């Protein structure tokens, strides 16, 4: 008998970034493996709603046709603000709209509800659906919340933070299964569960589809560096500015595909300092972003130095490996361990910008070492991060 699953997420195709791509892959691969998966999501709005009026982002005709399986909740046209209070009200609005939709769907028989967090408020609308439809709940944790909220240093109200911690513990306890995209989350989640808890925690990392993996790099005379992804509160924008200046001074091209609350600040810095070797690219589709990464020799990643971010495995790292592009990163913890053990690049203290740039120059003058790192990227992504292989962990739960 075919199982039926309702996936609840704020981020879904055509939303750019790791979260939207992750949920797209889960939805497609479940449906391709004899599971009837439906999506309950919002209208695309990250990093802003207006950009999705451009049909270039709607580049998957298969998903464009699956309208009966994709339910989109309309939301107000709000940009993702730095103001945490405004963002919280935005998330509460989504929770309220999801609850209304769950009531309309109450006669549907879903065997499982698969809900993705953050934000955690969507999870509580999933609890409503779990009771209403008598479904089992699979909770996906893509970020430790509220710890990550504290980590970006925008909100420190202890009363509300403590309330969020109570909600977080409740969230873990209500789930029959917990799915994580970083092994670094395991210890934290177990500490929030009872000692005798038997709730399974399943590691399901981000990754590429087989068709996205780059087997052969394009040979290009230009030595280009790339940064792709969020330029937000979790990233160290001051270090990124300094790297851009130092690469420009060394006549090395630096491509940046950036979006997020700090993107405008970074853009202004590049223009005001006449950094002519820094090329800024507007947010684009995953296909175009991977193409740009593929044409780069080295990729850069950054997270700020808060402990909570040592548990994170950023999706951009896997995208870099997918394109056979070695990584130089200012990260620690899980991300640093993955890069070091797979020998796909180099890791430095996030504030050690000079060491990062010096390593880029060393690689520029050592093409043989670059080739070895590229091959390590290819073998690692095939072995550990391929979606067609890892989706079996989720299929085993559902079946």
Automatic annotation (TrEMBL):
Cleaved signal peptide residues: none
PANTHER family referenced in this protein's UniProt entry, alphabetically: SULFOQUINOVOSYL TRANSFERASE SQD2 (PTHR45947)
Keyword hit for Transmembrane: yes
Protein name (database record): Glycosyl transferase family 1 domain-containing protein
Any GO MF annotation of the entry: hexosyltransferase activity
Sorted UniProt keywords: Membrane, Transmembrane, Transmembrane helix
Glycosyl transferase family domain location: 213-376
CDD domains: GT4_WbuB-like (cd03794)
Family matches, as SUPFAM superfamilies: UDP-Glycosyltransferase/glycogen phosphorylase
Transmembrane parts of this sequence: 112-129
